[in-house]
Amino acid sequence: MVKKIKLVLMAFIFMGITSTFAIGQTCSCAGAPLVNSQSLGAVEKGNLVIGLTTDFNNIDQLYTGSKELKNRSSKRETFTTLVEANYGLSSRITLSGTFSYVQKTRTTGLQNSSNSQELETTGIGDALVMLKYSLIKPSLWKPYQLMAGGGMKIPFATNSLKANGLALNADMQPGTGSWDGVGWMLFSYTVRSLDLNVYTMNSYKRTTPASRFSQDDEYKFGNEFNSMLGILKPAFDSFSYSLQLKFRTAEADQRNGSKMPSTGGEWLNIVPGIGYSFTDRLSMQVSGEVPLYQNVNGTQPTTTYIVRASMFFSLDKANTGFSFGLPNNN
């Protein structure tokens, strides 16, 4: 039975999700989820943890402010593959690099299925490089840790794709084209009597404008703040479960210095998940994400649900293995 469960979970991680995409209204959910993928804490000196994450975002709700509208005419889906590497440079410093591949689909004309149109874009996404520093390391006497980090989002991806000679909206581009600064922090506390880990992870991304189709066409995605509060607890055998509340706020985008209508807003999501450790070196996590509250600027399509699956593999210099996932208390 356990072998069957393992096979099912492994298949879910690596399965392909085929999508189809189209031109339409901009929303504040473009780009790969690079910052939110930073779920790993400290990595010991000389050790390497490699992660593979697949992220499917279904965007087919239409909101004005905090009110859902029923007369939607388009929908969008994104499927992102993230490859993450974390290496322990010293006993306190971890180097993290995340690279992405993005597939996006937009379907328009949903009121009349015979006239609906689809557009798909695919390509290498942007990357994120960060240094994380352990301000407080957990120990026998200190069941908590505090980490802070900073880095840069690197614009590897194109942001000037066209379809049939027409420029595509910013949220249909594989990348943003901008160099963005990122600040990050993680605090976790282990309640030993309950075998429960409580943690919070926060990040801030400051964006910059980037030229798209000409020097006179500059687009800037809004600065954004992400905050997560969660718990992590072993369940039975090699299983664990987690529950998170995730808050995100984004400022309005700008084009040539002017604010873009119907961009930016606030989102509060709940994220239940399960984890499984196959061995000391190999583990996985599967989670689902649904909105509890959404308040967007103007009228925007927004997320209905997100499904995410991750696998982590450890290369341990000491050949002893260490913990995976969020947080790492070694």
Q: Helical content, roughly? A: under 10%
Main sheet specs: 12 strands, antiparallel, barrel
N-to-C order of helices and strands: HEEEEEEEEEEEEEEEEEEEE
Q: How large is the radius of gyration?
A: 20 Å
Ranges with pLDDT <50 over ≥5 residues?
1-26, 320-330
For the largest sheet, list the strands in their spatial order: 1-4-5-6-7-10-11-14-15-18-19-20
Shape: globular
Mean pLDDT: 84
Q: Termini distance?
A: 31 Å
Number of strands: 20
Total of DSSP H or I helical runs spanning 4+ residues = 1
Tell me the strand percentage band.
Answer: over 45%
How would you classify the helix and strand content by structural class? Answer: mainly beta
Written overview of the protein:
The protein has 330 residues and is mainly beta. 4% of the residues lie in helices and 56% in strands. It contains one helix and 20 strands. The protein has one helix at residues 2-14; strands at 48-59, 61-65, 67-69, 74-88, 93-108, 117-136, 144-154, 162-163, 166-167, 180-191, 196-206, 210-211, 218-220, 224-234, 239-250, 254-255, 258-259, 265-277, 282-302, 305-315. The strands form three sheets. Strands 1-4-5-6-7-10-11-14-15-18-19-20 form a twelve-stranded antiparallel beta barrel. It has a four-stranded antiparallel beta sheet with strand order 12-13-16-17, with no helix packed on it. The protein is globular and about 60 Å long. The chain starts with a helix and ends in a 15-residue tail after the last strand.
